[in-house]
Amino acid sequence: AERPGGSLLTRQLQELWRKSRGSLAPQRLLFEVTSASVVSERSSKYVLYTIYLIRSGRFDKAPATIARRYSDFERLNRRLRCRFGCDMAGIAFPRKRLRRNFTAETIAKRSRAFEQFLSHLHSIAEIRRSPEFLEFFFLQDLRAAQRLTCTGMYREALATWANAYRLQDRLGVCGSGRFLLTLAGLAVCHQELDELGEAHSCCEQALQLLEAQGSHPLLGPFLQAHVHLAWKVGKDKRRSEARLQDLREAGPPLQQQPTLKECLIKEPLE
To answer: Is residue 17 pLDDT above 60, yes or no?
Structure first.
């Protein structure tokens, strides 16, 4: 995409945002628009907003970021109003404008409005835990990472899986099926890039999450990957071997189970 003029984060725009954000009360999770760029694609032109998810009172070495346009926010707003009509009644959403969409003042006001919109949504527990809200943040990354992994672009995929990991971590959904899939993606990419220690750590984290579950589609593949990686890096693999043995006795032959990479590639991300 062509981006005439590059980022619109001029001193003027930064100053407008600084003034408008002064009244925002500190929260556990903050949403901050850090840049806005005008994008031209063939016959369309739009503003792309980059948003950081920041945990109040904590320093995060790597940021969790998303880049969304007005239509993405509009779609989220529409979906949530259909499902949570009463809760959404008091939540403001910036209206579409017919003119002056690309001025610094308009972009600054919209940026502030999007920050307030996401913060307000996150303050309502039922909305905060809903698939509509959560997938707004990380589903795009999961789909992109899966495509990159399928085409063998492991370094690029790794960065995208890692951002999806951070987003889910900030949003507090580290026990979900999407998070396990993210750990699978990280493990596969690290292994393909010969970063075996990191791949082993991802498998260990996944197995800790799966500890209480007697069965899960990813349990066998994670155990097999963990045993192989533990042998490669010289770590203890006896517990995983014992759990694999239990699986052998309880279900179909493990030879018929897909590998972690096969599970990752076949997983539908609708």
So the answer is: no
